[in-house]
TrEMBL record:
InterPro entries: Aminotrans_IV, Aminotransferase-like, BCAT-like_C. SUPFAM superfamilies: D-aminoacid aminotransferase-like PLP-dependent enzymes. It holds the Pfam family Aminotran_4. It comes from the Bacteria. One of its GO terms (molecular function) is transaminase activity. Keywords: Aminotransferase, Transferase. This is Aminotransferase class IV. The keyword Protein biosynthesis does not apply. The keyword Nucleotidyltransferase does not apply.
Amino acid sequence: MKILDSYLIKDGRVVGREAHEHRFSLGAREAGLDQWDIEAFLLRVRDELPDDGTYFPKIEVGANGALRWQLRHPPALRSTTELYIPTEQDQRVYPRVKGPDYDYLQQLREQARTVGADDALLHRNGKVLEAANAAIMFFPGWKQETDSAAGAAGLTPDNGAPSDPSAVPDKIALLPPEQAQVLASVTAHSSVSVLHDAGWQVHRGVLSLAEALETPAWVGSSLHGWTRLTAWRTDAGRRQAVAAPDPTSINRALWEHAS
């Protein structure tokens, strides 16, 4: 089983470094590797990574079970994102593990690029999951509608208490439930406390495709950070996304907490 992870490193610092390593370790153990070998490998990578400059290293378990890593320069970073909505629903076999479905996800991204989008949406049974190479965070309260997509989605706050659809505050950030069939996003996980500090309430829930099209959103990854979702694309054309809040301060805070 192929397992991989990647993250942006700036002058020796990484947002959510331990979370990246933990996610990789879980996948590597599922692939049959010994925990001691995994830990020794990750310590060696830490030791060999440069202390200055900006890089986008990749760590992986190859098809033959070998642990290896590659130091790469990052591609051009983007500040906004357009998402392609494929007609087929999510076909991943291991949605909670990064690596086994890599070829399928890259194929989706290439399809997205043929219509001018940056990445592809993953959806199943009419519900939005995430992007092929990124997490998605919605802002249902940003529209200032108390009976909008937030109430329709049956949201619950991140602390597990039931929400009151009639009293949705403006500053709600919506992430998938932790048990959802999505990859555990390090960017999203690292953002929860930062969002709380900035006065946002983090809720857990899912939106339908129809609701998602009417809801402001960010798209987030280790490489690009959080970017505004500015458009949806299909094979038939392009649709402007609802304007989302500015993620600049959240991205800045993530790097302030990087180690």
